[in-house]
Amino acid sequence: MPEDMIRSVEFRKNSYDAQSRTFEAVIATETPVLRHDAQGPYLEILPAEAFDLSNQNLPLLDSHNTGTVRAILGRTESIRRADQQIVATIRLSAAEDVAPIGQRIADGTLDGVSIGYRATGWITRREGAQRIRTAGSVVPREVTLTSNPADPNSGVRQQQEAAVPKDNIEDGRAALIQRVRAAHNLPEDFQTRMEEAGEEIGDDEIRQAGRDEAAAIRAAKPEPVRLRFQTGATDEEMVAFLRERRAEALACRMTGEAPSEAARPFMAMGLQDFAREALATAGVAVRSLGAEEVMTRAMHGTSDFPELLTASGNRVLASGYQAAQSPLKALARQRTMSDFRATSILKLGEFSGLQKVTESGEIKAMTTGEAKEGYALDTFGGTFALSRKAIINDDLGGFGRWSEMMGRAAAETEAKQLMALLTVNAGGGVKLGDGVNLFHADHGNLAAAGAALSETSLSAARLALRTQKGLDGKTPVNVVPKFLLVGPALETTAEKLLATINATTTGDVNPFGGKLTLLVEPRITTTAWYVFADPATAPVLEYAYLSSAPGPQLSSRDGWEVLGREFRVVLDFGCGAVDHRGAYRNAGV
To answer: 10 Å Cβ neighbour count for 162?
Structure first.
């Protein structure tokens, strides 16, 4: 579990308004603070954007004392980000025992402020021998007055009426309005409205109007998304999680898809933003670098920016790949292979039944037939380049289009390989281990003559599958039809044939309603149609990927022939026919 922590800052003296008992302090900055843990010393950084400011009303304590209610000195009225700092407007209690605290603040005797907070999502990096931990999420728990500040770069914004004579009521009122506006970071029209109201509203009403308007503005804004991690997650796991979310955000910008809640905070970042962040994480000072130099260093240095590009490209590639999937894959069984050697798939025949045990108790051994089919993986690939100009110009559209097209090309490659298994040899399909085409009269899975798709011809296909025999040629295997595969020309006919009909007479009953799933493959350009069983019970087709790289894989390198970055897509894929009993073909008419 993350532990509660404290951090001290300073505020400038003479910022205390005795009339309202308020002062404004910078309570946190991004200044590194030295801390220690079990691994030794490290620098802690709390980025302003990491702060969760949903709770605007925090207690003001005396020296982090939570043991007594008397240590509560007041509360914050508002907390906001300003110039990469966290600024709070704080009001002291009107209790008599708190009055001396206000006097010490006013005369500058007390000028230290600290926060108590809980931080998670740490990202750890090193600059030389120095370990640096940056928080991904910071939840403030309390603000405290302290005599020992630790952040020298924090301070209080001066109140704007400090130089205004106390006897000038009008000037004092204008200064109050300005102060309230500044404290709550309100728009200019707030000041105009308050000034036009004149004496109709008093000082307390102005302060309340400021609080109400600030609350309304906060309520109108969408709640900030905060990254959450599982308890006990290591720094490496958190870094990996954030890297994945950044890649997701970049991919969503390219595809237009909605990001997850965890990736949403990164959606506003462009390539240059990610490049600067990657360089800063790698320890490179980026404040003085121009856009071109940032992108050049990020692409060719030791940062993880190239990895981010590749990861986001892989996501777009996968999206295009999935969108272009052929329905043929629903008919095939998937597996993985460890290498490129041809695999042999052993088919075992069926047992005709158990044999009766003899009077002496002898159980006879049983035998079965066997056959083999096989295929091997092949490697397919292609390349494209993202130019230096496109990267500097933040042209995510071009990168996204290339990645998506490569994904679709990979899906098309797989579909062509699977389709060829069914259509080679003049439509008879690939030859099996017995030397006979996949669809053949000897296999009992080819219509003797082409016939239009109808209840009669579909019934004949179902009968052929149901009466298939095992390897012994005798034992029925009872193949259950599940899919009807057609080309676009037969789609409407097939839909009508498979439609469920609420029959009023026995003759109107549709025997195939709800029993077959229609698959339409645009690569089938003839009137041929097929019936397939579930590949889980009677596999006919099988496809495989290399176990270490399932599906298309995107990798990249520094551009050699082009100024930019080169990307390569590789697909290790193979497919084959493993049996004939689960499929039937009719050439159609």
So the answer is: 11
* Confidence tier at 225 by pLDDT (50, 70, 90): very low
Structure tokens at 72: 């509560």
- Tell me the per-residue pLDDT of 271-315, one tens digit each, with 9 for 90 and over: 888 888 888 777 777 767 777 788 878 877 677 888 888 888 888
pLDDT interval class at 491 (50, 70, 90):
very high
For all residues of the chain together, what is the average pLDDT?
80
Q: How far is 364 from 379, CA to CA, in rounded Å?
A: 48
Give 377-429 pLDDT, tens digit per residue.
999 998 888 777 777 776 677 788 888 899 999 999 999 999 999 999 999 99
Measured CA distances, 42 to 34, 136, 231 (Å): 6, 16, 21
The Cα 404–Cα 255 span in angstroms is: 9
Paired tokens of 492: 């409407």
Write out the H or E segment, with its range, that includes residue 243: helix 235-255
Burial of residue 90, with CB atoms counted within 10 A of its CB: 0-12 exposed, 13-18 middle, 19 or more buried: buried
Those residues whose C-beta lies under 8 Å from the C-beta of residue 131, and which sit 6 or more positions away, are 39, 40, 41, 42, 43, 124, 125
Under DSSP, the state recorded for 5 is E
The Cα–Cα gap between 355 and 423 comes to 43
Angle CA 445–448–454, to nearest 5: 85
Confidence band of 227 (pLDDT split at 50, 70, 90): very low
SS3 of residue 552 by DSSP: coil
- H runs (alpha helix) in 19-168: 99-106
Number of residues that this document lists for the chain = 589
User: Residue 61 burial by CB count (10 A; 0-12/13-18/19+): exposed, middle or buried?
Assistant: buried
Sorted by where each starts, the structural domains of the chain and their CATH numbers stand as 4-159 (no CATH), 235-323 (no CATH), 445-539+579-586 (3.30.2320)
Radius of gyration of the chain (CA): 36
Report pLDDT digits (tens) over 234-248: 566 777 788 888 899
Q: Per-residue pLDDT for 229 more than 70? A: no
Give the C-alpha separation, 24 to 11, whole Å: 8
Task: Copy the structure tokens of residue 312.
Answer: 């986001």
Proportion of the chain in helix, strand, coil states, percent, rounded to 5: 35, 25, 40
Q: How far apart are CA 261 and CA 352, in angstroms?
A: 58
Kindly report, residue by residue over 180-191, the tens digit of the pLDDT.
Answer: 776 666 787 888
Cβ neighbours around 96 below 10 Å, total: 7
517 with 530: CB under 8 angstroms? no
Could you please report the per-residue DSSP string of 138-204? EEEEEEEE-S---BTT---PPPTTTTS-TT-HHHHHHHHHHHHHHHHT--HHHHHHHHHHGGGS-HH
Q: Is the pTM of this model over 0.70?
A: no
DSSP state for residue 436 in the 8-state scheme: S
Inter-residue contact 94 to 177 (CB < 8 Å): no
Q: How many CB atoms lie within 10 A of CB 184?
A: 23
